[in-house]
Amino acid sequence: MKFFYTNPDQDKLYLKVNTLINISYWIASDAFHFASKQVKEINKYEYNNLKSQYEIASNLYKDAKDLSESLTDDHSKCAELLLNHSKKSFDEFQIDKIFMPETTNNELDKLDIHDAIFDEDIFYASYKKFLTLGDIESDFIKAELIFGSACNKMIHFMETSYKNYKAASRDCNRIIEETMEARIILDYGISNDLYRESLRKEYQVFHINTDKNIKLYSFNDYYEASMDYMNFWRDYYIIHEQYYKNFFEPENSIYPEADFFNQTCEQYIFIMHKKAIELNLIILNNLGVEIPSFEIYSARKIISPIDFLGQHKDLRESK
Question: Nearest-5° angle of CA 198, CA 282, CA 223?
């Protein structure tokens, strides 16, 4: 962030607020996503556990808000933007919402995606003035916004009954262009090791007035976890890019490939939640922040690559 090293104590407090907001989001999203994919299998015991998980996330968000009251100047303004941007998620991720009779699986899968992308654009317009161009967070958000635009186009593409190949091919190419653009942003930063310095600066904030009893993760641990997360997102963009590049290939039977693509994306979303939560736990540990124990529900749904490919083989043979 541009305001780092202007006030060390404020820097560390801001990181605590930022990370509590992030982990509260991912915990709530993790529980919601897990439940929304198997509504009929959730019994009362599991339902109560999921609601408790949502409460943990909600309380962590409140902790972040309380801590933010001690921030000043740009630290405070930036934290307020994050808090306001994240607030809507907690309404969307309420577990009760999944079990409302009028809510369909299709509605859950497309949970306010257009509104979410619109909100992200508005947020970024104000938030970007605090970012250092070329840093890991700046590039990540920029790629995320471009991919969000591609997702809107994917929905339109899949829901449109095209009358000719030319129109369909044009819209498909627009999806490819944006997924490539998002992927290239991350690929360039990762390949040229551009994020090491910004991550090292952030890591140094962890050491401000550090409690000597805290066993810190090393910079290498933090760096590798952060880059693993960025590599994961780059691969997620590649999956979409390749799927749409091959969409009109004559040798492909689109329906089994579509099933495999959807299953692959589903696995990536589960892994995404697990990696995001684990990375934020590393940061909280190094900041000396303890939070209540909770379950990463997505971990239950992640399967080994061998089992996953076996499922794909069974899928192909059934077609």
Answer: 35
**What is the C-alpha to C-alpha distance for residues 33 and 273, in angstroms, rounded to an integer?**
9
pTM over 0.70: yes
**Residues whose CB is less than 8 angstroms from the CB of residue 7 and which lie 6 or more positions away in sequence, other chains included:** 72, 73, 75
Burial (Cβ within 10 Å: 0-12, 13-18, ≥19) of residue 306: exposed
How many Cα atoms within 13 Å fall on the side-chain side of residue 260?
Answer: 23
**Side chain identity at residue 226, one-letter code:** S
Which helix (H) or strand (E) segment holds residue 317: the answer is helix 305-318
Question: 86-141: per-residue pLDDT in tens?
Answer: 887 777 888 887 877 655 555 545 555 655 666 778 888 899 999 998 899 999 99
Q: What are phi and psi of 28, to 5 degrees?
A: -65, -45
Q: How far apart are CA 204 and CA 279, in angstroms?
A: 16
Taking phi over 0 as left and psi of -120 to 50 as alpha, with beta for the rest, 193 belongs to left
Residue with tokens 């942003």: 185
The 10s digit of each residue's pLDDT in 25-48 is: 999 999 999 998 888 888 899 999
Cβ neighbors of 204 (< 8 A, separation 6 or more) are none
CA distances 156 to 151, 160, 168, 177, 244, Å, are 9, 6, 11, 16, 14
Intra-chain end-to-end CA distance of the chain, in Å: 51
Provide φ and ψ at 279, rounded to 5°. -65, -45
